[in-house]
Amino acid sequence: MDRKPIILITAEDINDASGNVYVMSKAYGQAVREAGGEPFGAASFRTIAEYVDFADALIITHGQNMHPFRHGGLVAGPDDLMGFSQTRDDFDFAILDAFVKAGKPVLGVNRGMLVINAYLGGQIQRQLPPGFISDGEIVKPGKNEKGSMVVTKPIAMLNHKYGKFDVTIDPESRLAKYMGEKATIISSHAHACKTLAEGLKKTAWAPDGIIMAFESENDKLFGIQWNPEQPSSRNEADYGVYRMFIDAVKEGK
To answer: Which of 52, 137, 169, 221 has its CA 20 to 30 A from that of 97?
Structure first.
């Protein structure tokens, strides 16, 4: 490829005080540029065919939870129907379908990873319970004869929705070539991949075993359960995932 790969990035279609607007974090575009790609936003349902013709690859970004019906889930109560966007679900699944059928690479970030897995028939786990972690492993504090909790060694809370912890990366994966076999990440997800769809392989996992990244066997689909492009007071932005993806796009041309 004698030019920078054109990477399409999905945006959120919302209504706010100023009317109907498209919203997307600038960090995605910055990550794509730093990794050697040319970023373009995408949010129009009516131009999906043009997007596929125009772009070399797609990134499905973070956002609201999917409706349970999108991944075969059951609605147990009103809370299960809160916080999802019908238009976002429709757009993400439609544009993913178009890029998969065109044989073009797709990276799913956080929610985007779950969308890819659900689209292919994988199961989604909702409302991940917090746990305790010590020396990178899950532990269960003991109790004394009165039933009070007893801590025998330093522990920290493992919280996927508001947490910071190390993930283990498969040394044989493409991801390990860019991130190493361990990475400290900031986690901000309430749902996760329970089982992976056929054709996907786990490449990173949390101390409690939750799947944190996958790659497809044909090197066309990638999922990452955290947002490495988002800097915070606890972590600097990391563009390794995006370099991996851009290089995969170049290799496929």
So the answer is: 169
Q: Which amino acid is at 45?
A: F
User: Do 212 and 182 meet the contact criterion of CB atoms below 8 Å apart?
Assistant: no
Question: DSSP per residue over the chain, as a string?
Answer: --SPPEEEEE-EEEEETTEEEEE--HHHHHHHHHTT-EEEEE--GGGHHHHHHH-SEEEE---SBPPGGGGT----SGGGGSSB-HHHHHHHHHHHHHHHHTT--EEEETHHHHHHHHHTT-EEE-SPPPEEEETTEEE--EE-TTS-EE--S--EEE-SSSEEEEEEE-TTSTTHHHH-SEEEEEE--S-EEEEPPTTEEEEEE-TT--EEEEEETTS-EEEESS-TT---SS-----HHHHHHHHHHHHT-
φ/ψ of residue 202, rounded to 5:
-70, 130
Sign of CA dihedral 111, 112, 117, 118: positive
Q: Encode pLDDT of 121-148 as tens digits.
A: 999 987 777 777 766 667 665 665 666 6
Residue among 59, 46, 60, 43 at smallest CA distance from 7: 59
The CA distance from 61 to 1, in Å, is: 25
Cα 142 from Cα 199, distance rounded (Å): 41
Lowest mean per-residue pLDDT among 41-45, 85-89, 132-136:
132-136
What are the tens digits of pLDDT across the range 53-66?
999 999 999 988 77
CATH number for the domain formed by residue range(s) 6-127+186-251: 3.40.50.880
**Domain extents in the chain:** 6-127+186-251
